[in-house]
Amino acid sequence: MIDATDPTGGAYTSPTLLFIPAAAVPKWTVRVIGSTEVQSPADVDAKVRPGLGAELGLPGGITLGGGTSWVGGDINATTNKTDFNLGLSPYGQVRVNIIGRPDGRGFLLGASATYKFVGFEGDPGEMEFAVSSQYRGRSFELGLQAVIGKDFATTDADGEAHAYAVYRVIPQLAIGAATQIRKGLVFQPGETTYDVIGGAIASLTLGRFQVGALGGASTIGLNQGQAGGLGQFFLSARF
After folding, report:
1. By residue range, what is the domain housing residue 145?
2. What is the rounded CA–CA span in Å between residue 180 and residue 31?
3. Tens digit of pLDDT for each residue in 127-173?
4. In a domain, 77, yes or no
5. Does 19 fall in a domain?
6. Which residue, of 15, 49, 217, 225, has the greatest Cβ tally within 10 A?
7. What is the number of structural domains in the chain?
């Protein structure tokens, strides 16, 4: 079990929304995360993308998670207007800690499986499998994550690499940078073959609460070669 009194918030938290922690939430601890992404330019009704999720720590280093986010940009073919039901993207996740010290320091390794779909109109969704590795020192922290995703509605598949690095000015305050790169492995004609997100990040932990932000750029939802400004904000609480 990771020490819940860790002033950094614990190894089971992450200083960025772009990374799935390698450590497990402590047994029977609940963590709730509210978030918002702001991107401009962006596709239809996706300039602001709020999200809400929760995690529960179980015995054996297992964490269950679930929630939803607004992805927008989906037009109903009948009304030719944005359909609220088509813009929600619920997800469920299970992750397990494979390697990690009880104090959350040093090298950590974890794996996760995430199922998500868009809308409530019969989309079969997609599955993502990730392996996360982190190194947490006293004043710095590094993370590297590999993801493979498969879409069930088409033959599409992709691979992603996520990374972050932060320096802790004090144990509660982390400042650094994060990035995410997606590369299409199997894709349809006309689809974008890659996406990139990146920017500066900051995270502040005060007791059971954590607030974090990213300021940077993203190509998600835009034509290939285009990019927009991106802001990510999140607030989490553990109980």
Report:
1. 30-230
2. 24
3. 999 999 999 999 999 999 999 999 998 999 999 999 999 999 999 99
4. yes
5. no
6. 15
7. 1
